[in-house]
Amino acid sequence: MKSISAKAIHEAVRDMIMDACRLLSDDVYDAFTKAHAEEESASAKEVMAQLIENADLARNTQLALCQDTGSAVFFVDYGEDVKIEGGSLEQVLSDAMVEAYDKGYLRKSMCHPLTRKNTGDNTPPIIHAHVVPGDVLRIRFMAKGGGSENMSRVAMLKPAQGWAGIRDFVVRTMAEAGPNPCPPTVVGVGIGGTFDLAPTLAKKALFRPIGVRNADPEVAAMETELLAAINDLGIGPMGLGGKTTSLDVKVEMHPCHIASLPVAVNVQCHSSRTKEVVF
Amino acid sequence: MATYNLTTPLRDEDVVPLHAGDVVYLTGTIYTARDAAHRKLMEALDNEERLPFELQGAIIYYVGPAPAPPGCAIGSAGPTTSGRMDSYAPRLHALGVKASIGKGKRSQEVRDALQEHKGVYFGATGGAGALLSQRITASEVIAYPELGPEAIRKLTVKDFPLLVVNDAHGAELYAKPRYEP
């Protein structure tokens, strides 16, 4: 059994959240630089230059990369042999998140779905926890913006539609999204599972760094094909036209029921803010 | 594509020459309002109550800014998706609002209202909230503080960088998808 103090988790998670919202990760920053170099139109180049300048500014000040510092989403691998001393996992994540959003000058974006009353402290976080063998505790955080989340879609396709149906659904989703989700986007795709698992896979896929393909060569080929098809749409940075509509596509696949073919597309804006801590 | 330096409030003669694709640097006073604030504004109009700001010539910025770090007038403050305000925008344009600032597509009803009432829809770069905050020199909550980030704020802006997305002549800037999936 490995004991980890709630205090140690709290401090690491708090700092991770504040960093994620201000320090753009290298893979995303490098993708901006590459897009800036490859774009030909003045407006697409200008958008990419602004995004690079924005990332530099946030890194060197206390300003968040984007005012929408998101729903606080966690994916946790919780080892069977881990014991958290002094608090529950859910409570420590929530408390650390509250402190990070307060001390880090991050926007509190959670509200009652109907009255729209703001909860005031960005609670509750959205937590996906999985029990895994061993004594590892891996906590991944995503600041998930609402504008791109709104463009996300799930479909229960017929098995007969196969890969062609999946490809059409993914590309159509991005065509309909157009300029709304702050392109160039990162696209998470979940194929298979159940009605609820497909979108969770799509979201989980977004944690994989830009440029890193799925380990399964067949799935990796799907990612490459989808990325090319989406960029052929020509929507471009902020929808002003250009070569870069998406920075990358990430696919995660899972077996599904013989009757079903669930597909989910989770759209992530260019401000792709993820980070992890491992104990 | 032309470049214009405009000061608020906007008049018909400021808006009519603008065409989709033009660059505008805006200086003066603008008002923030997003989802919940628009709902409150509509209730106030329905109840014939006094509104928190003068609509004539006004520019509404669809934004919910982050809290201001020490030494800053405001926190990160980029545009939110405008389409969610489409159901409110025509009524506001009919009452004198000249422009909105946001990101993303507008409905045909909004585009019609821009033509009818000589209005304009500006795009600001989404996700560049830190950068855009540097062009905001003052921020004050003037209504609905209980809405938190959705409260209505009066912002003072200097050379705020905008693109004309939908003009008063029916044109739109955004790229159409090159093919139908």
Structure description:
- The complex is a heterodimer of chains A (279) and B (181).
- Chain A folds into 2 domains: 2-20 and 65-144; 147-273, no CATH class.
- Chain A contains 8 helices and 10 strands.
- Chain A has helices at residues 6-20, 26-38, 42-60, 89-103, 146-149, 162-177, 197-205, 217-231, and strands at residues 2-5, 71-79, 82-85, 126-132, 137-144, 153-157, 185-193, 246-256, 261-268, 274-278.
- The radius of gyration of chain A is 19 Å and the shape is globular.
- The model of chain A has no long low-confidence stretch (mean pLDDT 98).
- With 181 residues, chain B is an alpha/beta fold.
- Chain B has 5 helices and 7 strands, in the order βαβαβαβαβαββ.
- Chain B has helices at 12-15, 35-46, 89-94, 108-117, 129-133; strands at 3-7, 23-32, 59-61, 99-102, 120-123, 136-143, 152-166.
- Chain B starts with a strand and ends in a 15-residue tail after the last strand.
- In chain B, 53% of the residues are buried.
- The mean pLDDT of chain B is 97.
- The interface between A and B is large, with 52 and 45 residues.
Spatial strand arrangement across the major sheet of chain B: 2-3-4-5-7
Query: Would you identify the CATH H-level superfamily of chain B?
Result: Fe-S hydro-lyase, tartrate dehydratase beta-type, catalytic domain
Gyration radius of chain A, rounded: 19 Å
- Please give the CATH architecture of chain B: Alpha-Beta Barrel
Which structural category do the helix and sheet elements of chain B fall into?
alpha/beta
